[in-house]
Write a structure and sequence with these properties.
74% helix; 429 residues; mainly alpha; disordered N terminus; 18 helices
Length: 429
């Protein structure tokens, strides 16, 4: 078995404690604004906005696929890390994202365009914003890697993610009120998110960094070669599998609720609030659990739990208040489990990442997961579209889809069984 190449580095020495503390403060304070900006323009409001414009299941799948598929852009962006500061790449990507999303601030005009013109313009804006977000996120984890203590990875990310979940809860509570008063009025919601993205851009311009500018070219094949290492390979397979199933399932829960069950936009946004509440109440606790017990038991519990929840969707039939309450519970618990999986995922990846040159491994992780998770929503949307056109029982099609996805989710933890606490600590270097 060939080994991954050894990476020599002439990069800067580690940041001092004051710089690391300043980096953590800026990251934690700016991240809620940035994640609100990115989440509002990637999920779930874009799904509802596209449905309001008359988009098909295939087009919905393409939008979700673009969010994941554009992670491939992190490979060419990685080449810039040896020559440009990570901070400048991060800020430049944010500015590009702000420009790409600007046309959506006049969403009302898209609805007036003939045929499917408005749908395709919206899809283009969403895709360009996803591309910009992927390019800037190439350096986000490598920047954070310089601020984090090895024994506090879980707690740091629990704190970081708790902040943006809380912000998104307030945003979507306000969105629910707005959509009840102004059905289909997505433009002002996009404008608020855009303003928060601008504020985050200003804050991240002050981030300290541990430079990786060595003058030597970073080769993409060096990042790809890291996948030959057995533990990295198992990590990539397991996380891509689980993430691909998850991102191909949830958007079509929303489509089913809107089109087949008959819930309004405002009612569906209620479930979105529950989704972010699930992350809010659990992230910090998951961080402690992962640091204490390792990632393997968390991977097992969260995948099996998400599978059980998806299987329960086959019982959804009517738009009553009891059904809505049950769906609020579904999104809350699914997010709670997905948050635990995400913290465990980050814990393992950081332990597989060398501190002096983190970009290669972190970008490899994002791109490999993005490739798989980018294909699955588009494939799922195409299959659903074809099946719905040939079936007189649309709910039956969705129920069969959820049963298949539940089985796939349940099996996703198998490649991740070896990431125990002892094994994780041996990987830190």
């Amino acid at each position: 078995m060939s080994e991954a190449p050894r990476i020599d580095s002439a990069a800067e020495a580690p940041l001092d404690e004051l710089a690391r503390a300043r980096g953590r403060r800026l990251a934690i304070s700016s991240h809620p604004f940035g994640m609100t900006f990115l989440m509002v323009f990637t999920q779930p409001l874009p799904t509802l906005a596209l449905l309001a414009l008359g988009a098909s299941e295939t087009q919905v799948g393409l939008q979700i696929a673009a969010v994941q598929g554009t992670l491939l852009l992190q490979l060419p962006t990685l080449r810039l890390v040896a020559r440009l500061s990570k901070r400048s790449i991060l800020v430049g990507g944010h500015l590009f994202a702000l420009a790409a999303s600007a046309p959506l601030l006049r969403f009302d005009r898209l609805a007036d365009l003939p045929n499917e013109t408005g749908v395709w313009i919206a899809l283009l804006c969403f895709a360009l914003l996803a591309a910009a977000g992927s390019m800037s996120n190439t350096v986000w984890f490598p920047l954070l890697r310089a601020f984090v203590e090895p024994d506090r990875i879980g707690r740091f990310f629990g704190t970081l993610r708790t902040g943006w979940h809380l912000t998104l809860i307030f945003f979507f509570i306000a969105s629910q009120w707005w959509l009840e008063k102004h059905p289909g009025g997505f433009g002002p919601l996009f404008a608020v998110a855009w303003s928060l993205g601008l504020l985050r851009t200003i804050l991240i311009a002050r981030l300290p960094e541990r430079s990786e500018r060595t003058g030597a070219r970073i080769r993409i094949r060096e990042a790809v070669a890291l996948a030959r290492e057995p533990r990295m390979r198992r990590y990539l397979i397991g996380v891509a599998w689980s993430t691909g199933v998850r991102v191909a399932t949830l958007p079509f829960v929303i489509v089913m609720l809107r089109r087949e069950i008959g819930f309004s936009d405002a009612q569906i946004v209620t479930t979105t609030v529950a989704m972010f509440a699930g992350g809010l109440v659990s992230l910090y606790g998951w961080g402690h659990l992962v640091d204490r017990f390792g990632a393997a038991p968390i991977f097992r519990i969260t995948n099996l739990g998400m599978a059980a929840l998806v299987l329960a969707l086959v019982g959804v039939s009517g738009a009553g208040s009891g059904t809505l309450l049950g769906l609020v519970g579904f999104f809350f618990l699914h997010s709670l489990l997905a948050s635990g999986f995400g913290v465990a995922d980050t814990h393992v990846l950081f332990n597989l990442t060398p501190s002096h040159a983190p970009s290669r491994a972190l970008v490899l992780g994002a791109v490999a997961v993005g490739m798989i998770a980018g294909l699955t929503p588009a494939l799922a949307g195409g299959i659903l579209d074809a099946s719905l056109h040939s079936s007189a029982a649309p709910l039956g099609v969705y129920r069969a889809f959820f049963m298949v996805m539940a089985a796939a989710q349940a099996l996703a933890f198998l490649p991740l069984r070896g990431f125990t606490r002892k094994a994780d600590s041996e990987d830190w270097r």
